[in-house]
Amino acid sequence: MNTLGTRISDYRRKSGLTQMQLAEKIGVSFQAVSSWERDEYMPDTKNLIALAETFDISISNLTDDKKRNFTTEKELFDWTHMKTFIKTTAKSRDMKDTLSALDFAEKAHSGQKRKKSEIPYIYHPLNLACHCLALGIYDDAVVAACLLHDVIEDCGKTTDELPVGAEAKQLVSLLTHEKDDSRRKQILEDYYSEMAKNPKSALIKCIDRCNNLTTMSWGLTRDRIYRYIDETEQYIYPLLQIIKNVPEYNDAAWLLRYQIGSMLDIYKRLL
Question: The CATH number of the domain where 212 resides is what?
Fold first, then answer.
């Protein structure tokens, strides 16, 4: 039977917790967890919230007695096919920085994985570059910066090491910030303030955010998802307006606003 107790037991096991460990995490007795799983008693509202947070699911997901099995895809496209598409496009349009950035990014991110998955990290920058090209943007510095946007922050590379021209290097620099939770608010204020001065970096950041939003459901905890939604509304929406004010990016701004806004609305409803 698909009872609340059964679901609590199933999620506990999926989380790798014993009944005692779960009890300690939410501040109840071992006997309480045992009685919930046997359907002798129901957890009160406070404990339902604690259980949902511990399992990193919604309360409705825990309490809904309708069994639904969905197949989800974390990787929609093969990264090697995306690489071939970018390389072919770059060669046909003589995008030298993009070609150099492509090989450099693949080597820099070698061995890295996307959060909570076995997907090679290079999938992410390749996705950004393909998204950019799909929007009809063939600016060599912009596409190259899409590919390199995380190599300083996540791979320990320096700006001087990047095998691209001055403009692409500047864009990657603008897209890079330090990670320090104790100063997070000030870091973000400074980061987005500088980015707002350069429409090309704003464009790349919005494409980056669009891609990251698609992975929130499996790559981030519920607390991080709430924080990501707030950050998107506070900082990304103003960047979209900056992009919109550039005539050549007007169509891209409309599509990105639609994609980002739609995803945020879906997450809010489900949360």
Answer: 1.10.3210.10
